[in-house]
Design goal:
488 residues; alpha/beta; TIM Barrel; eight-stranded parallel barrel; two-stranded parallel sheet; globular; glycosidase
Length: 488
């Protein structure tokens, strides 16, 4: 008789997740080059619509570099993790982190992306960070590319649309694998790799206005094929250079429901889910799924492959699947209905059964259980939730306290559903809450959209002392980790 699974396994990896471009700052220090994220301006809320999307084109970049435009670029400053990393990691250790997800900013290692030699100051910085984590017995989970394509690769090659970028990426991967082989076991190749189809600039450093005569989808799917090959080659390199290493892919999971039980709605939701899971299908199964043949044909998309590409994908699948989960989505074919906001996506229909965050993202904890079960049944590989959190306005009381019960409620409900999924038999490696410390929002470049257990004194205009302080959720998450998720 089999024993029922009751909770998270003893070595469950609890922690938090960040991205270099949202926390580090020091964008022009110690030899770092510009990245695509450094060119994304702050847009005030009154100028953003419901489905605001990052729109950076070649003319804008040229004007910025020529000094004709002088916007604010909050990701250039982040929260100055570059100079505060010891203090921040000490707070993560106090929380009880087992793992900390961080990205390496590619342009800090290879300032232009295609440099012949790496920047030693950049390599040393991340070595210092990883050693600091080791001192506190925290495992690093390192993302190689988290919306941080070196701007030089965008200007010279148009980013991942060029196959030449594969070579520069694998050189970068080999460099950091070799340097950190004794410090980092867990790696992710690309953050939210599917986002390239929603924003080619964000996901791949691609300027679609530089490629006339092709649709955004035609451009994005070609670019992501190059990322698939690069990811497989990086997985191969990691396994060769770092014995026992584990490499995962990373997807922005957009669990999609039909609004009605009309068969057309069900087919529409199934199709949208397939388009989302296409990216993990390639990473985990090592081949393009057959359902994409029709999608490519129907949309005049031709993916140019070179001889040997299929073998590369087949021979080097990922070890585990990681993903972000913030919300679910709903779709319908039955006429126009009220739309809702989402994570770099457009056209989602509001779900009448769900509440929404301050930014209009629909809150669906049970959707996380659905997602975990679907992944488990589809792939049978270990799963890792590497982003989940609530962006909200926080109020600092006169005594400095921050009572963020809304964040505790959001996270506790999601962790409860994780626990249910584990009872269902899902192999779940760990959970890194997004933004354990307040950081610059990627989608809006705001500071006021706060996720952290740790408050950072900085506003949307960059004013503040950068002082770190604990919110109520700090003690709550500390206890969650201490009790391995038993006390929520």
């Amino acid at each position: 008789m089999t024993k029922a699974i009751k909770g998270f396994k003893p070595d469950f990896l609890w922690g938090g997740a960040t991205a270099a471009n949202q926390v580090e700052g020091a964008f022009d220090q110690d030899g770092k080059g510009l990245s695509t994220a450094d060119m994304v301006p702050f847009v005030p809320k009154e100028k953003r619509g419901l489905n605001f999307a990052i729109d950076v084109n070649s003319e804008y970049i040229d004007d910025v570099l020529a000094g004709k435009i002088q916007d604010r670029y909050p990701k250039r400053d982040g929260i100055d993790f570059y100079h505060h990393y010891k203090e921040d990691i000490a707070l993560f250790a106090e929380l009880g982190f087992k793992v900390f997800r961080v990205s390496i900013n590619w342009s800090r290692i290879f300032p232009n992306g295609d440099d012949a030699q790496p920047n030693e100051a950049g390599l040393q910085f991340y070595e210092n960070v990883f050693n600091e984590l080791k001192k506190h017995n925290i495992e690093p989970l390192v993302t190689l590319s988290h919306y941080e394509t070196p701007l030089g690769l965008t200007l010279k090659y148009n980013g991942w649309y060029s196959r030449e970028v594969i070579e520069f990426y694998t050189r970068y991967a080999e460099t950091v694998f070799t340097r950190y082989k004794d410090l980092v076991k867990y790696w992710l190749t690309f953050n939210e790799i599917n986002v390239i189809t929603h924003s080619p600039y964000t996901g791949g450093g691609v300027l679609i206005d530089k490629i006339p005569g092709k649709t955004s989808d035609q451009i994005a799917y070609q670019a992501v094929h190059h990322q698939f090959i690069a990811s497989a080659l990086a997985t191969k390199l990691a396994h060769e250079i770092i014995p026992g290493s584990q490499v995962g892919c990373m997807l922005a999971r957009m669990q999609t429901y039909p609004v009605t039980n009309h068969p057309d709605d069900i087919l529409k939701a199934q199709h949208d889910n397939d388009l989302n899971l296409f990216f993990t299908d390639v990473h985990a199964k090592g081949e393009y799924p057959s359902y994409m043949d029709r999608h490519f044909a129907d949309n005049d998309i031709v993916v140019n492959k070179e001889e040997g590409d299929d073998e590369i994908l087949k021979n080097h699948p990922v070890d585990f699947i990681s993903f972000s989960y913030y919300m679910s989505m709903s779709v319908t074919t039955q006429g126009e209905q009220e739309e809702t906001a989402g994570n770099l996506v457009k056209g989602a229909v509001k779900n009448q059964y769900l509440e929404s965050s301050d930014w209009g993202w629909q809150i669906d904890p049970k959707g996380l259980r659905v997602t975990l079960r679907d992944f488990h049944n589809r792939y049978g590989k270990p799963l890792f939730i590497v982003e989940n959190g609530l962006g909200a306005y926080d109020k600092v009381e006169e005594d400095g306290s921050i009572h963020d019960q809304y964040r505790i409620d959001y996270l506790s409900k999601h962790i409860e559903q994780m626990k249910e999924a584990v009872k269902d038999g899902v192999d779940l490696m760990g959970y890194t809450a997004w933004g354990p410390i307040d950081l610059i929002s990627f989608s809006t470049s705001e500071m006021s959209k706060r996720y952290g257990f740790i408050y950072v004194d900085q506003d949307d205009l960059g004013n503040g002392t950068l002082k770190r302080s604990k919110k109520d959720s700090f003690a709550w998450y500390q206890n969650v980790i201490k009790t391995n998720g038993e006390e929520l």
